[in-house]
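Researcher: We're teaching a course module on how sequence relates to structure. For the next exercise, students receive a sequence and then see the predicted structure as tokens, so they can try to spot secondary structure elements on their own. Here is the exercise chain.
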Amino acid sequence: MSGSPARGRAGGKVILLGEHAVVYGRPAVATGLPLGIEAEALRDAGPRLESDVVPGDARGEALVAQAAEALALDPRRWVVRVCSDLPPGQGLGSSAALCVAVLRALAAAAGRRLERDEELDLGRRLEGIFHGTPSGIDPAAAALGTTFRFVRGDPPLVERLVPGAPMVIVVAPGDVPRSTGAAVGGLRERRQAERARYEALFDAVAEVVEEGIRALCRGDATALGAAFDRNQTLLERMGVSSPEIERRVAAARVAGALGAKLTGGGVGGAVIALVDDEHEAAVTNAVRQQAAAAFRIRIAGVP
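Model: And here is the predicted structure for the students to work with:
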């Protein structure tokens, strides 16, 4: 092995509103997380991914190979090492963060700085290694690290959002990783069997998303919290919630959360709760009874 490593980093995400429906062309809102994945690319016999994220997984080799080829690098000469402080299998965008971090490290090795649209496109294609036909919202969050409205497309519509006031969200990961691909695939099968029912649910989610965006942009945390709750009800009706999620959602609401819902793929995974200053500690303590790794994020308001 020789040469200095080239490095890249990408953060995780929480989907505030609109998961699952976003796969079917409806809007969603996401925000980046400070937690993320660091990658370094080194010349060695490859393609190979050395990772605590996907240990021993052939998808890691495919990720390095496809990312290298996209950057006109010889995959046989590259190894990428990654480390993560982002819990996998929780709906927090760990696969997308991995893809974008690897892509950035290899781009640095190639002496390139990718333009935004190219990075979004390549990130979406690489995430397909892990999730089949993803919407692209996760790699967009990993690449941008901001709060934004997203509509799937080629290219996708990505609009930055600036909250009218700071918002604090408690994130409560579950104890057991689950598969986003399985959740998405199960919903796809149910939609095929009852298309009209699920299209109506997706339309209802789209309305909630737009209401939530208006609340976010005017700094109305109470209205945004109500949008969280309505979105959670619709996700339950889609069949992508779980008793574990609903216990954490209920605990957050009883402790004073303005609204709470699953985030990401569902069927397990993380819950997010919007809180005010008065109830932040109580909500955090309540969800930590079921999710010891709970943490808070702050979405900044107008500068």
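Model: If you want an answer key for the exercise: The CA atoms of residues 160 and 266 lie 25 Å apart. The first helix runs from residue 58 to 70.
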